[in-house]
Amino acid sequence: MSTKTERYIIPNIARALKILEMLAKQEKGASISEIAQNFEIPVNSTFRIIKSLEAYGYVEEENRRYFTTPRLLYLGYAGLNKKGVVQNSIDVMHALRDNINETVMLGTMVSNEIVIIEQLPSFEFIKFTTEIGHRVPVHASAPGKAILAYMPDEEKQAVIEHLSFDRFNDATIPSKSDMLDEINEIVKKGFSVDNGEEITGIICVAAPILDYRNYPVASVWMTGPDYRVKEKGIAEIGAAVIEAADKISRRFGMDNMKSKI
Description:
It contains eleven helices and eight strands. It is of the alpha+beta class. The protein has two domains: about 5-80, Arc Repressor Mutant, subunit A, CATH 1.10.10.10; about 85-250, GAF domain (Beta-Lactamase). The strands form two sheets. The chain has a six-stranded antiparallel β-sheet with strand order 5-4-3-8-7-6, with helices on both faces. A two-stranded antiparallel sheet has the order 1-2.
């Protein structure tokens, strides 16, 4: 949140929203003292916020513990963007492509493969493009690895178990254990890299697009010739791709508000 934006924040409204977010994640609810301690705010202020939320039907009390109510679903469903992944991503993709001047693609996982659903070609004379609908293997693609890395553990393991790990060249990930090692690194960095693992000489850098459950519904990525990508800097491109993916993810309700008020 920018300093300019923070000037307009009303503290008690911000606190009420953070309390709702906290309670939405607590299956056993929380007491007023627990909420006050978590956000380091006075108990009497917490009490008034909770009672206001209760009066408007957003929380309910049971045995002195407070829980969110289904009324939050009304706001959630009303606020969910009704546009599809492509419509929610295209302007961000344009900005990313214009920023790094490499081809930007959008794809989603279907039957353990990544299907390309949109692309914006680079302005460079030498560039990489493909057809919409083209499929790429999960284990040898940046978007495949990015989506896989952010899946729930059980689903992730199921996908990995069904991968054939076909070798396209010496750079292709050869096994389940190598894939798991790669996934751990992806989660640490926030982006994945395909270092010519399917097509020699082509590098892709991807980040996942997450929905309101923080589930990876798609991926956005950059692709270009290795000599140019390395010159521009993989880490720098990775940061730009993460920023783009996060912007799209927020349109699908991704929860990235972790700071306390």
